[in-house]
């Protein structure tokens, strides 16, 4: 995968069944609570880990703007479980 123009290798995506501590979701910035399940992977080129609610990971995977070879997103730019970018017309945001 390419992130900010640099080839980055990632670990396999893991499903962690029970978080040992509270942590922020890298997609929506909401808290993943201790005891909740989450998705996790590590970016070797950047030396960073990524943790997401399962529904946020699915939203990232289904993002129509997501290029599978370019996994780049801004943390907190999307609401939990959605890839609308807080579009007021999104049904998950109270739109029609």
Please explain how this structure is put together.
This protein is mostly beta strands and 96 residues long. A three-stranded antiparallel beta sheet has the order 3-6-7. A two-stranded antiparallel sheet has the order 1-2. The protein has one domain. It contains one helix and seven strands; from the N terminus they run βββββββα. A hairpin with a 6-residue loop joins strand 4 (23-24) and strand 5 (31-32).
Q: Cα-atom Rg, whole angstroms?
A: 14 Å
Number of strands: 7
Q: Please describe the biggest sheet, giving its number of strands, its sense, and whether it closes into a barrel.
A: 3 strands, antiparallel
The quaternary structure here is: single chain
Order of helices and strands: EEEEEEEH
Average pLDDT, rounded to a whole number, is 82
Please state roughly what percent of the residues sit in beta strands, choosing from under 5%, 5-15%, 15-25%, 25-35%, 35-45% or over 45%. Answer: 15-25%
Distance from N terminus to C terminus (CA atoms, Å) equals 35 Å
Q: Tell me the number of structural domains.
A: 1
Strand order within the widest sheet?
3-6-7
Low-confidence stretches: none
- The backbone outline, from C-alpha atoms, is globular
Per DSSP, the total helix count is: 1
Q: Which structural class is indicated by helix and strand composition? A: mainly beta
Helix content: under 10%
List the helices and strands and how they pair.
Layout: E1 2-3, E2 6-7, E3 14-16, E4 23-24, E5 31-32, E6 38-43, E7 48-52, H1 54-61
Antiparallel strand pairs: 1-2, 3-6, 4-5, 6-7
